[in-house]
Amino acid sequence: MSWTRVFVLSLLTTLLILTFSSVVSSAAVRGDSKAADPKGAAQQVFMAESDASNFFKRRSRRSTRHYELQAEQRVRLSVNERRREYNEEQRDEYDNYIKEERDEQNERSRETNEQLREYHYDGHQPRYYWFH
Question: H-helix or E-strand containing 75?
Answer without folding.
Answer: helix 66-120
